[in-house]
Amino acid sequence: MAFERSRAAARRRRRWTAVLGATALALTAGGALAAPAGATTTSVPVEFATHCVPPPIAGIPPIDGTTTAQITVDKAAAKVGDTVTVTYTVTKPAASNPVDLALPADIMTPSGKVTLGGAQSGAVTVTGPKKNPPVPGKGSFPAFSMTGTFTVTTPGAITLSPGDYNIHTSYIMELDTPCTVANAPVSETVTATAQPGANERALQLDNASGAPGVRVTVSGTKFTPLAEVTVVGRAGAAETADRMTVTTDSEGGFAARLKVNDKATTGIVAYEGAAWDPDKGAGPVAYQVIDDTPTPPNSQKITASVTAGQLSMTQAGDAVQLSAVDFGQGGAATGPLQTVTVKDFRGGPAGWSLTGKVTDFTGPGGAIGAGKLSWTPSCTTKAGSPSTCVPGTAGPVGGTGATLASTPNGTLTGGEFTIDAGLSLDVPAFTAPGSYAGVLTLTLS
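C-alpha cells predicted for Beta-xylosidase (445 residues):
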C-alpha cells in the first residue's frame, strides 16, 4: 500500500510539473524591459483587462485579471514606406505562480499582436525569445517582451495598442495558452508623413458612365506644371483606343474632354511620359461605357463582361520554426518557408515580382546577421494560367532583399501560383544558447 501511495504521489507531482510548466497561466517569458535601441520615449504604460484560457490538461479555469503593458517603437516620426520596429512589453502580468512548485528557466515563448489604428489599420505580429528566468513557487511572473515590424503606408497619426497574446510552453509537452485583451488603450503613436516627392497626382471625372462617343471631362491635379500628359482609357491593365494628350497649366492641373468610343473601356488613367508609370500617373478612375446600339427587330441583344480583378498574395502562416543547432558546432538551422499563394487576376500585360528581405536575428548572444539567411525558392503554376512562374535564384536573402519568384510581362498575363522555399540560417559555432528571431518581409509588386 505504501508503494502504491508513493507511485500515486509521483504521478501527481509529474502532472503538476507538466501542467505548470505548460501553463502556469502562461504569463511568463524572459525579456528585457528596455525599449529597443533608438526608441523614443513618447509611449506610456497602460492597463487593460485580460482573459487567459489555460490548456484543458491543466484543469485550471480561465483567468481574468489586469495586465500592465507598454508599446515602444524605434521611430515615432516616420515617413510613408519606412519600416517601424515595434516592441510590446508586458511589465506586470495578470497573475503569479499559483502553487509551491517552481518553474524552470527558458520554457516559454510569447507571441502576440499590436493593434494599429488612426491613419493606418491592421495588426502587427510580434514574437519574443524562448527565455525566462526560473519562477519560484508562489512567485510573481516576470515581465516579457515581443517585437515585430510594420511598414508605414499612410500619412497621419498611427496609434498602437496592446492586442491578444499567446504563450507557447515547451516543458514535458508543447502547449499554448491564449490570452484575450479587452479594450486596451493606446500606448504609443507614430506620426507619419509623406515621402518627399511622393506621387500626389489625382484624377476626377464629371461622369462615371456614358454611351459610346460621349465625352467625359477628366480633371487632373498635382501633375508636373507645363508637362504633356496622356489621358487614356483602360480595360484592366491594358490601354484601350480612347486616348488624347493635354498640357498641364502652371500649377500642374488640366481638364481634358476625352471622347470614349471603345466599349472595352472600364477606367481612365493619365500619366506623364511615353508609357504608364505609377510614379508619374494617376488612376484608374472607374468609367462604364453603356452600349446603346439598337437591337434589330425580332432579336435579343446578349451581353457578357469580364471584370478585371486584383494582384494579391496570401501565406499559409506567419511563423517559421527552424531546426536547432548545437552550441560549439553551429551550422545550418533549416526549415520550410510558409507557402505563399499569388493570384494575378488583373488580366493585363504586366507580370509581377515577389521579393523578400530579412532583419538580423536577435537573441541572448546578440545578433546573427541577416546575410546568414539563405533560401532555395521554388514555384508552381496552376494549370490554365496564362503566365508561368519563375523561381528566384538560390542564395542569401539579407537586409537588402532578394527575389523569391516572378512572372514576365506579356500580351496577356495572370493566373494562380504557389511559391515555396527551403530556408537555411548559418549559425556560428559558439553562438550563445537561446532563441534567435528575425522578421522576413515579403513584397508583391
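The chain has three domains: 2-193, 202-289, 311-444.
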